[in-house]
Write a structure and sequence with these properties.
elongated, 7 helices, disordered N terminus, mainly alpha, 2 domains, 188 residues
């Protein structure tokens, strides 16, 4: 037999309402027909109010559960972002140690450790076990673009448009332009 605390609050209220309308007390008999009608009416109003209160409580609980699940979603997202941040920090540390120790990219992938000291010790062990015969590798250069010759002549666009200047320096300009990155032209 189920316990009354395990049933739905709305069902409990309905059961109580049925019980109260059929029960009569000695004081109910003394009220007369008008009193009994008022009492039944009052009890019906009380049942309706209790039903509305139970529905309101259920709705409040629903909102609390919804907010709770939203908070759980945010906590999971936060945890995922922290894990990604830690992973990126670890890979950056691994790359830095590998570059400092002169490891090849293939050797750098095999570094194991969580702290800089552990990674440096592992890098030294890798170098002892698998010495590098080639020059020290450099990881990708963060500076993008073509490198220009520092000794290359620089011309203003207005100078190149000036026929007299161009005619006087034609050989130098054409030689500089023939070399890749050999000349710099600055707009006016």
């Amino acid at each position: 037999m189920p316990d009354s605390t395990e049933t739905d609050p709305a069902e409990q209220i309905e059961a109580a309402a049925v019980t109260t309308t059929t029960e009569t007390t000695p004081t109910d008999e003394a009220l007369g027909d008008g009193g009994k009608a008022a009492l039944v009416k009052e009890r019906a109003a009380a049942r309706a109010a209790e039903k509305r209160a139970a529905e309101a409580e259920a709705r409040i609980k629903e909102f609390e559960d919804r907010d709770k699940s939203e908070a759980q979603k945010l906590a999971e997202e936060r945890d995922a972002l922290k894990a990604e941040r830690d992973s990126l920090a670890q890979s950056t540390l691994r790359r830095d140690v590998a570059d400092e120790k002169g490891l090849t990219p293939a050797q750098a992938k095999r570094l194991v450790g969580t702290t800089r000291e552990e990674l440096e010790a592992d890098a030294e062990a890798i170098l002892i076990d698998f010495p590098i015969t080639a020059a020290k590798p450099q990881f990708a250069d963060v500076g993008q673009g073509v490198r220009q010759n520092g000794n290359a002549p620089t011309y203003r666009l207005s100078q190149l448009r000036d026929h007299a200047f161009y005619a006087a320096n034609k050989a130098d300009i054409e030689a500089a332009m023939a070399e890749p990155g050999g000349t710099r032209i600055i707009p006016d």
